[in-house]
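Supplementary Methods. Inverse-folding protocol.

Structures were first reduced to a discrete structure-token string of length 468. This string, shown here, constituted the complete conditioning input.
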């Protein structure tokens, strides 16, 4: 029987990063993955393929709507090939997952393909596709089994007309009318892909605004931008039924006035969040506690109630984000090596990769009000930037919230071009407990989108923004 210092179950961003860090720290490491490719949801059917389609569809939209104003004339009809778009997406996924294979070999990590399940706290069974199995012994285990799309109890996901994000990434045709249930990150990103390609898109959201966990101003700005793009929003709607009628899907819902309404489309994307995935893990054999929400219970060291077993990523509490899982993977590896790592969960940024992009870190304005924290707010519109006007990306803003007394930055919220990258500046500043004044005194290159961060900081320090 093969024996390891640490075994990771699940090869998503949390799992494979944990494996690399464990190997770097001198541990004999095994990585168990039930699918034939590494990378988990993120690399195979999540972050990477969705961004590939977002980029491809953005190019198409630019060609049909914006090239002419830039002096680029195209003779003849601009056509979209969804088949080629999907093929390019698959190539990007293949290259990315292949890169993980390389990293495993480079770091001498043993990859074991099959479904990993606990025999007990120190023995793992790996069941292969052909039904055969092997058993390994391990000193420590890191559970990184991720999450799966959630649904509602009355909805049957048939994977043909009633679909999840997984199926939406490989459709054979552009929908005529895509009905999206859920105004969160995944629904909005995939909704925007197909809207750009010509589909009518209707988003049905239970809450009174989209991206409800982010700052309210961001919800308002993104709603306005996506409405201009032709996306229709139906907020404060409670979905009550979804029926596949063959070539059509009917979604029934109750609006905020308790009236029953219905929506008919050829596809319905169910995007109501994700659930922790522990199916087949046999956690009970190891004595691991799982909460009523299906999450593995961990302490501040990400250790389960069984001392040698840890859990990270979507399978535990907290935001279901790839980069959060990566930080946790490194955290556990370094903890096992006797180091004293830390994670500040308040400084894990959140991003929506629509266009304009949306990015946040720290506290929202609503959270500060609820907590009774006195704060200052400075906001700067992207339309006031020379760089935004040059590129034609004038939607959005940067908002900085700072402590009224100390001026420490408490939250930064952005909507606009490339804010998924800009948010890193805010994370760095907040990691070092910078004040708005600190950011306002830093030189920002001109012309850049990043100037909006400086201007928002100037506004937060006392109405000192220079370009509005």
């Amino acid at each position: 029987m093969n024996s390891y210092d640490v075994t990771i179950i699940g090869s998503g961003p949390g799992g494979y990063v944990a494996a690399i860090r464990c190997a770097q720290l001198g541990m004999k490491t095994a990585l168990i993955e039930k699918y034939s490719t590494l990378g988990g949801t993120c690399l195979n059917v999540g972050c990477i393929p969705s961004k590939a389609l977002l980029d491809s569809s953005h190019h198409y939209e630019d060609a049909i709507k914006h090239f002419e104003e830039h002096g680029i004339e195209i003779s003849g009809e601009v056509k979209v090939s969804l088949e080629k778009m999907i093929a390019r997406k698959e190539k990007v996924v293949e290259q990315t997952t292949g890169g993980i294979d390389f990293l495993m070999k480079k770091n001498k990590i043993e990859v074991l393909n099959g479904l990993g399940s606990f025999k007990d706290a120190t023995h793992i069974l790996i069941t292969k596709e052909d039904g055969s199995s092997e058993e390994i012994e391990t000193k420590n285990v890191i559970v990184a089994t991720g999450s799966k799309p959630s649904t509602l109890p009355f909805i049957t996901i048939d994977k043909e007309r009633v679909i999840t994000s997984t199926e939406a990434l490989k459709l054979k045709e552009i929908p005529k009318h895509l009905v999206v249930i859920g105004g969160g990150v995944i629904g909005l990103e995939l909704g925007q892909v197909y809207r750009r390609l010509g589909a009518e898109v209707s988003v049905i959201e239970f809450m009174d605004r989209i991206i409800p966990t982010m700052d309210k101003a961001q919800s308002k700005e993104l709603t306005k931008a996506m409405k201009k793009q032709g996306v229709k929003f139906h907020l404060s709607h409670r979905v009550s039924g979804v029926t596949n009628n063959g070539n059509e899907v009917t979604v029934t819902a109750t609006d905020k006035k308790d009236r029953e309404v219905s929506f008919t489309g050829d596809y319905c994307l169910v995007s109501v969040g994700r659930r922790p995935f522990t199916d087949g893990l046999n956690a009970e054999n190891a004595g691991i506690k799982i909460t009523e929400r299906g999450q593995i219970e961990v302490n501040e060291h990400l250790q389960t109630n069984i001392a040698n077993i840890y859990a990270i990523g979507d399978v535990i509490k907290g935001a279901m984000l790839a980069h959060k899982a990566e930080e946790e993977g490194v955290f556990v590896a370094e903890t096992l090596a006797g180091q004293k790592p830390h994670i500040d969960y308040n400084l894990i940024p959140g991003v929506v990769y629509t266009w304009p992009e949306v990015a946040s870190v720290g506290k929202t304005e609503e959270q500060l009000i609820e907590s009774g924290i006195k704060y200052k707010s400075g906001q700067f519109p992207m339309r006031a930037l020379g760089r935004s006007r040059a590129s034609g990306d004038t939607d959005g803003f940067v908002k900085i919230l700072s402590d009224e007394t100390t001026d420490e930055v408490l939250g930064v919220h952005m909507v606009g071009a490339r804010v998924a990258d800009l948010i890193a500046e805010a994370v760095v500043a907040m990691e070092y407990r910078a004040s708005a004044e600190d950011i306002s005194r830093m030189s920002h290159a001109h012309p850049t989108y990043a100037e909006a961060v400086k201007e928002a900081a100037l506004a937060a320090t006392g109405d000192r923004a220079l370009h509005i």
